[in-house]
Amino acid sequence: MFERFTKDARAVVSGAAAHAERAGEAVVDTDHLLLALLDREGSRASFALDALGARDRRDSIARGLATARRRGGLSGAEADALAGLGIDLSEIISRVEQTHGVGALAADSGGRRGRGRMRHRPFTNGAKKTLERSLRIATGHRDRHIGDEHLLLALLARPGTPAEVLAEHNVTYDRVDRVLYGEPERDAG
Q1: Per-block average pLDDT, block size 10, for the chain (189 residues)?
Q2: Which end of the chain is more exposed for a tag (fewer CB within 10 A), N or C?
Q3: Which domains, and CATH codes, for the chain?
Q4: How far is 1 from 22, CA to CA, in rounded Å?
Q5: What is the pLDDT of residues 25-61, one digit of tens each?
Q6: Can you tell me the distance from the alpha carbon of 127 to that of 13, in angstroms, rounded to the nearest whole number?
């Protein structure tokens, strides 16, 4: 599949691994893919993100991702559902962090945080599924290669923190698809 990735898509994958490394994470997750997409310039995904104002709000998006990571990767909707059951997630996070340190609930998936430089960081299942979905999206648009725009659309198509944080910034699958591919043609029939 990677042979079908454009230079920009490959740069996003490499950038995601670099984000994971800088954060001391043992694995590359969908959050890292989103941060790498926000770093790109002069690509189709960066065009869409610019058009929707997301790159201007990069810091806010990064904070949203960090907040979700701090609460163990739970989405805002999941936190609201727990609150509806009378479970105060911020109280739980506070107690865990008092005992185990700030960021103790951060989804690290591997328990190897901070153990030095790794040569290869594996991708989480969510990140792998995003890469696989990008292929289906490219095929659905009849594009021969997988570009970074397909990675962005794949992140938005999957439920999870990146799609939720982007939606909070008015970046949705439909809006990105419209920016990239225009309005769907209507049958006059």
Answers
A1: 88 95 90 96 96 93 86 71 78 70 54 49 93 95 95 95 94 96 59
A2: C
A3: 2-72+121-180 (1.10.1780.10)
A4: 27
A5: 889 999 999 999 999 999 999 999 999 999 899 999 9
A6: 10
